[in-house]
Amino acid sequence: MNLSGKRQPTPGYTRLVSSAQPLALARTSRDVLRDYLSLGKLKIVVLLVGTAFLPMVAAAHGLPTVAQAIAVLAGGTLSSAGANAINCWFDRDIDQLMERTRNRPIPAGRIPAWHALALGIVANGIAFLILATLANVLAAVLALTGAAIYVFVYTMWLKRSTPQNIVIGGAAGAMPPLVGWAAVTGRLDLTAFSLFLVIFFWTPPHFWALAQMVSRDYERAKVPMMPVVKGKRRTQWWALVYAVLTLGVSLIPFFTGAVGSIYLAGALVLGLGLCALTVLDIRGRGWTGRLFGFSSLYLAVLFVVLAVGAVVT
Fold first, then answer.
1. Is residue 8 included in any domain, yes or no?
2. Domain holding 145: CATH number?
3. Which of 107, 187, 191, 311 is least surrounded by Cβ atoms within 10 Å, i.e. has the fewest?
4. Which long-range contacts (CB under 8 A, 24 or more apart) does 74-77 make?
5. CB distance 292 to 209 below 8 Å
6. What is the DSSP string of 184-227?
7. DSSP string, 89-153
């Protein structure tokens, strides 16, 4: 396995792209639009933007201003989608080797690779301007930092070089709560950083569950994800460690006084559920998919409870 981090040329990739061009000519404008939108991985973006907007509600103890909401919803969407587009540009070689990604528009030859790079750069530039103008410079810098970590630290460096890729690179996905909090308050505090840590520690058990299910894909593409390099059982035990850490840091907003007992109860139930499913995944087969599904639900529900808990406090 080549863990050097250098991109390896994929045999037949150029031939695949060129042979797909005639098919692209017959596609409708709706098909083309769908392909370009898919570069942003919008299903992931919805969750990321939600973890930026809901902390705004908690920070304001109510609804943020219209300008702040527009800044985070529009700026956050463009920043996250733009970073994802650049990821599609850079990972086009390994995407072609993996079953779940080979039909993405770039490896399938439906979109020129440089279009994704250009769209990603432009989207992040616009996002910065929106956030700086309608919210504040701190929020804009934090959003741009998150995109930079995802592109340069995770995608271009860690993903192909170490099984700790998603652990360290998870900082990118943990930036949205800081963006939302800063957009409302103009500063960061312990509560904001605890929300960052929730997503940071949640990312490994969530993503490693997916990696277990598609480990053959990562092995084929020579991407050193934890289940491929360290094995399933060791990955599961480390996932439990991070699930416990997630539970622990999720309680901090209650102790800072940002939220009340409603949030505390919700965080305990959700966190214990995450830990329990991680233990079940260690003890027997058939729980990995359930762990992945619950972990996705966990983050969305926790941040909804955060917003509700802050409003009624």
1. no
2. 1.10.357.140
3. 187
4. 74/127, 74/130, 75/127, 75/128, 75/130, 75/131, 75/134, 75/135, 75/139, 75/140, 75/143, 75/179, 76/45, 76/48, 76/49, 76/52, 76/127, 76/143, 76/176, 76/179, 76/180, 77/45, 77/49, 77/127
5. yes
6. HHSS--HHHHHHHHHHHHHHHHHHHHHHHHTHHHHHHTT---HH
7. HHTHHHHTTSTTTTTSTTTTTSS-HHHHHHHHHHHHHHHHHHHHHHT-HHHHHHHHHHHHIIIII
Closest residue by Cα to residue 202 from 24, 47, 28, 41: 47
Using alpha carbons, select from 182, 147, 170, 143 the residue that is nearest to residue 58: 182
Backbone φ, ψ for residue 226 (5° rounding):
-50, -45
Q: How many structural domains compose the chain?
A: 2
> Helix and strand tally (H, E) in the chain?
16, 0
What does the radius of gyration of the chain's CA atoms come to, in whole angstroms? 20
Half-sphere exposure at residue 198, Cβ-oriented, CA atoms within 13 angstroms? 30
3-state helix, strand, coil in the chain (%, to 5): 75, 0, 25
pLDDT reported for residue 284:
79
Q: Are residues 67 and 132 in the same domain?
A: yes
Same domain? For 50 and 78 the reply is yes
Reported as a single tens digit per residue, the pLDDT across 156-184 is: 999 999 999 999 999 999 999 999 999 99
Per-residue pLDDT, 26: 58
Q: Are residues 155 and 221 in the same domain?
A: no
- Domain range spanning residue 164? 14-188
**Shared-domain flag, residues 208 and 291:** yes
Q: Which residues of the chain have pLDDT under 50?
A: 1-6, 9-25
- CA dist., res. 242 & res. 208, Å (int): 11
What's the CA gap between 139 and 178, in Å, rounded?
A: 8
- Burial category of 275 from C-beta neighbours within 10 Å (exposed 0-12, middle 13-18, buried 19 and up): middle
